[in-house]
Amino acid sequence: MIILLTGVWIVLRESLTVATAVVGLVLSVCCVLLSRRLIPLAKTEPVKPLRLLVYLFYLLMQIYIGGLTSIAIVLLGSHVEIVEIKTQLRNRLLRAILVNSITLVPGSVTLDLTEDTITVLWLTRKTASSEELENADELLKGKLERMLMKAQK
Amino acid sequence: MIPVFLLLWIGSAVLLVREKRAVRLIIILGVYSLISAVCFFLLAAPDIAMAEVVVSAFSTILFIVCFEKYYSNVAPDRKPRRKARAGSRLIPLAFTVILAAAVILLIPEQAPPTYLKDLYMSRFSGEIGGENAVTAIYLGYRMYDTLFEALMLLVSIVAVVHLSHHDDEAVSVETPSGVSDSNIVGVTIRVLCPVLLLLSVYLVANGHISPGGGFHGGVVAAAFFVCRYMIYGITDMRINNVLVMEKIVYLVIVVFSVYFIILGAHSYLPIPKGIFLTVMNLLLGIKVACGFFIVFYRFIAFERR
Amino acid sequence: MTIAGEIIIAAGVIFILFGVAGLVRFKNFYARILVTAKIDTVGMMTIIIGMAVKHGLSFFSLKVLLLMAALLIVNPLASHMIARAAWSSGYKTDAQTGKVKDENKDYL
User: Fold this and answer.
1) CA-based nearest distance A153→chain C, Å
2) ipTM for the predicted complex
3) How many domains does chain C have?
4) How far is residue C6's CA from residue B131's CA, in Å, rounded to a whole number?
5) Are residues B98 and B201 both part of a single domain?
6) Are strands A79-86 and A108-113 parallel, antiparallel or unpaired?
């Protein structure tokens, strides 16, 4: 996190010198400590950051695929459903990432997250057949969740 | 043609002062704001004209709504409704059309002279320092403006604090936002909070080089506390310290700026101009952050039922 | 390089156009929330990527990509909160088929 913030500072100041990096490091440490102190919350379990980077690119691809699908649905016929799906992730941060990814992919918006059930608002074709409803699990989050499981330590 | 509008302005102001009935007062206030916006525009101050239009439109509607709400059952002097005469719609319409036509016809052919802009743009680097002309203007050439704006913010915050309804006890210290701490919003915003702090530090420190400045940095710092509210709740922070700190910071701003700018101390004091700008931006940022935090806290903690 | 960037920006604008068409077409709140989430995410992402490609590898592109990262974090959150507020107030999803998810949970 601190490394990320130092990178952000360097980008903001638009200069790649040692002085900027040192100032950025000091300020990032201060900001992280200050925010940890002012917002007391339990820490989340650690994750593997490299897998998360891979996940990011995969997510971008999914967003575009979902965008095109959603354009097709909007043009042809659409139907809004509320489905509930279960997740098997145990890490709180990864669960939040999964839920946000479901919202990011066009065509679905998360409504609620209880202990391991996600309620999702979903946009499907007009004649939603029953096997689609059962497949909602897989369609909405299957691949995303598998990638995230690999990111658990 | 401009004296005509000035006379109209004075005339409507006189009408405003002499009017006694509340409903008519509200309408005449709206007309007065309209005429003053037109006069601002004709006197080559379009930004003030825009601000006046927005404020007057909003406040006229607000006055009418409040008046309706509170006095609708207490109307001893209300005569029974006459049928609206045909002319009563026509007069305001004609007035507005004539005003609009006059304004459109009176727009000057050539652009107003920009000697002031050229003066500022060519000299601000040397005199005030930094590379951001806007910062140089609001911290150097137009310092009075900034002082009074900060004062206006202070007064409005005092008004919010004293006019908001509250019982004497504060709201109980649960998580009032209704979101528990193990859900989506909390976990996600937790990632964003240090970035907000860093961004506000950057905006304040770089105010004289890139777009930014004290006001923006202060607002982003207040946004950090809004995020804290969304994750954890905000009623456990002590607000009295913040109230006092804001006023002290304003005093420091006034003393500092008066000493440096108005008394001309910066020409012989060995403080480089960059430091002066950064310190002023920092003070302004702290003040604005405190102010907005107080307003937010007030609205959240004491208005929820 | 700039032409590729401009093509990507144009594609982003087309995405937004389709989204706005969907917005006008739908009457139900939930469908509109879905379409708005789509416009925010896909449209803005495409435009930002197009701008970054157009300016090549410079600090400007990095700043703009930083903006995109912030958007990716915050936009779904906003859509989620709006939709959830509607859902927990008992808003119905589809009036015609009578599919009423009317749980009036009390979230303060």
Assistant:
1) 23
2) 0.78
3) 1
4) 31
5) no
6) unpaired
C20 within some domain? yes
Show which of B52, B80, B105 is a domain's final residue: B105
- Closest chain C residue to the Cα of A61, Cα to Cα: C42
Contact status of B192 with chain C (Cβ, < 8 Å): yes
Question: B251-280 pLDDT, tens per residue?
Answer: 888 887 777 766 665 555 556 667 778 888
Which pLDDT tens digit goes with each residue over B178-206? 444 446 777 778 778 888 888 888 888 88
Chain C residue closest to B186 (CA)? C77
Please check whether residues B131 and B276 belong to one and the same domain.
yes
- At B224, list the tokens: 């950090």
Chain-chain contact of B232 with A44 (C-beta, under 8 angstroms): no
| A79-86 and A117-124 beta bridge pairing | antiparallel
Q: Which domain holds residue B10?
A: 2-70+91-105
Q: Is residue C97 part of a domain?
A: no
Co-location of B38 and B145 in the same domain: no
Select the residue of A67, A100, A112 nearest C15 (Cβ to Cβ): A67
Q: Model-level pTM? A: 0.74
What is residue B249's three-state secondary structure? helix
Q: For A95-118, what is each residue's pLDDT tens digit?
A: 888 888 888 888 888 887 777 777
Q: How far does the CA of residue C57 sit from the closest CA of chain A (Å)?
A: 12
Contact state of A100 with C76 under an 8 Å Cβ cutoff: yes
Tally of structural domains, chain B: 2
> Do B183 and B149 fall into the same domain?
yes
Token reading at C23: 């917005």
* Residue B200 domain flag: yes
Chain C residues touching residue B189 (CB < 8 angstroms):
77
Contact criterion met (CB < 8 Å) for C80 and A103? yes
Query: Nearest residue on chain B to C66, judged by CA atoms?
Result: B195
